[in-house]
Design a protein that fits this description.
The chain contains 17 helices and no strands. With about 500 residues, the protein is mostly helical. It has a single domain, classed as Cytochrome C Oxidase, Chain A, CATH 1.20.210.10. Bound molecules: protoporphyrin IX containing FE and copper (II) ion. Protoporphyrin IX containing FE (HEM) binds next to helix 1, helix 2, helix 14 and helix 16.
Length: about 500
């Protein structure tokens, strides 16, 4: 009874984060559409509009939706698989509200102060834009607040695991080194907990250099410190900037394990292999961010080399997980429903997006695609088709056990609308990128392919519409009632 209560609380926490995040996504998708439209020239010559809305779109979609919802759905997953309560629901509430204050500052900085330094706002860009100084200050402060929430998220995960009686090192995959743990009937860390522990630990480490950079920038705005070395600043940013992608991906893998376990009634196959791969991620995740600065010739060669090898190594957890999950679905009877359909699509695009990522990671190929629209295509394939899909899948899975899903049919239709249009949308970018189109350009590049931009708008519209269908369905599921309740009402009316 006690346990059920803890799970109910975690469910409400998770769905609260989710509903907020999906609302942010609904707006972010509209911004993305306007940004793409502005590149055609249809709105006139509007570079500032493009940069400001692109900056807000990137931050809102990636952090306000992706990271925030991945964080939110973690609460349920922890309690469910650890069979033990959260360490502190007060901390979970604080993380939420502190993050929201950060979001508010970001919105004000962009919409009222015109900040448009892109979502990574490479140092020292904050000091040199068409925007007001106060706006850049507020933007840096907003990101710093989100950063504090991210660190606390990591802390809450680790403390919850500890509270449940598991060793932290074991949860990070070190269990594979202990033969005694692998005897029949031994209690081991549940597999869905492992990616959560890895990202919890990873974010505590990686956010620190970034937080230093943000605080330094704030002090520099107050003329209290001199200009920092810009290459050092870039490395500090990317130390965090790469693994923050894992703040979405690793929880997504955890949710995928969890859903597949529920839908097959079996554990994921190859547990030891999967944990070995997570062990690699624990070690390597914080040493590869410099693959974002391959083009900086001032960087030492050995840093480039380590980043390339490390990036290849971090492919392991993805490959092993894709294999284990697919194997589990193949071997056991899999129930096809809303969440499982989303899992299937997510799994497919995770593999495909990984392939274009491998191109980016390879220095000899990166030379051709660096800062081109190819990169934008790669990360939208990942963010929209692989990660967002599964966040929806997991949210519907939890909603199903809450008041029910308002319309399962709509959830499945939305998946079709959004996948078909998403595939079209990203491929026009892939083509433009290979043709020399550069990213973050307020006009279509290459100019000769402006028609491609126009065509991509048709796909963008349906993509946005598909996301809105999920937004509407989620909102109705949580505020009105689920399908089950609807059916009961229909029966009562008969
Ligand atoms: C309807 C859906 C979407 C549309 C129409 C859209 C459109 C766009 C456009 C036009 C850009 C500018 C690319 C360039 O010219 O360099 C962009 C950038 C970006 N998008 Fe999206 N996008 C969508 C969904 C998403 C989602 C779901 C995410 C993340 C979860 C995301 C994350 C980003 C990021 C991080 C950037 C980079 C911003 C920057 O460079 O500062 N987008 N998107
Ligand atoms: Cu990266």
């Amino acid at each position: 009874m006690e346990q059920n209560n803890d799970l109910d609380i975690a469910k409400e926490m998770s769905l609260g984060y989710y509903l907020t995040g999906v609302t942010i996504l609904a707006v972010a998708a509209l911004l993305g559409f306007i940004v793409r439209l502005s590149q055609t020239g249809a709105l006139g010559n509007v570079p500032q509009l493009y940069y400001t809305l692109m900056t807000l779109h990137g931050m809102a979609a990636f952090v306000g939706w992706g990271c925030f919802v991945a964080m939110g759905l973690t609460w349920y997953t922890l309690v469910k698989h650890l069979d033990s309560p959260l360490h502190s629901t007060k901390l979970v509430m604080f993380i939420y509200w502190n993050f929201m204050v950060g979001v508010l500052l970001l919105v004000v900085a962009a919409l009222f102060g015109n900040f448009g330094g892109s979502w990574v706002f490479l140092y020292p860009l904050s000091f040199y834009g068409y925007w007001e100084n106060w706006a850049a200050f507020m933007w840096n402060l907003g990101v710093a607040l989100a950063g504090i929430s991210i660190i606390l998220y990591g802390v809450e995960i680790l403390l919850t695991i500890k509270k449940a009686g598991f060793g932290l090192l074991d949860a990070l995959g070190f269990e594979i080194l202990k033969p005694s743990k692998w005897k029949e009937g031994e209690k081991r860390v549940p597999l869905p907990i492992v990616p959560l522990a890895v990202i919890g630990w990873g974010m505590i480490i990686a956010t620190l250099p970034f937080a230093y950079l943000l605080v330094y920038t704030l002090l520099e705005f107050m003329d209290l410190v001199p200009r920092m070395d810009t290459l050092l600043a870039k490395n500090m940013l990317w130390w965090f900037g790469h693994p923050v992608v894992y703040l979405i991906l690793f929880p997504v893998v955890s949710f995928m394990y969890s859903i597949v376990m529920d839908y097959t009634g079996h554990d994921i196959i190859g547990e030891k292999w999967a944990k070995s791969a997570w062990f690699v991620a624990t070690v390597v995740q914080n040493f590869i961010g410099a693959h974002h600065v391959y083009a900086d010739l001032a960087q030492q060669q050995w840093v480039h080399a380590i980043s390339e090898v490390g990036t290849y190594a971090i492919i392991l957890p993805s490959l092993v997980s894709i294999f284990s999950i697919t194997g589990t679905i193949y071997l056991y009877k899999f129930k096809w429903d809303v969440a499982s359909s989303y899992v299937f699509v997510s799994l497919t695009f995770w593999l495909l997006a990984g392939m274009s990522g491998w191109v980016n990671a390879t220095i000899a190929l990166n030379e051709f695609v660096h800062n081109s629209l190819w990169v934008v295509a790669h990360f939208h394939t990942m963010a929209v088709l692989a990660l967002s899909t599964l966040l929806f899948g997991m949210a519907f899975h939890i909603m199903d056990q809450y008041k029910g899903v308002y319309s399962k049919k709509m959830a499945k239709d939305a998946l079709i609308v959004y996948v078909v249009s998403g595939v079209g949308f990203v491929h026009l970018w892939f083509i433009q990128g290979l043709w020399g189109g550069i990213r973050r350009s307020y006009r279509s590049t290459p100019e000769s392919l402006n028609l491609f931009t126009w065509i991509s708008l048709v796909f963008a519209f349906f993509l946005m519409f598909g996301l809105w269908m999920n937004f509407y369905n989620s909102y109705m599921s949580l505020t009105q009632s689920g399908e089950k309740v609807k059916e009961e009402v229909a029966v009562a009316a008969d």
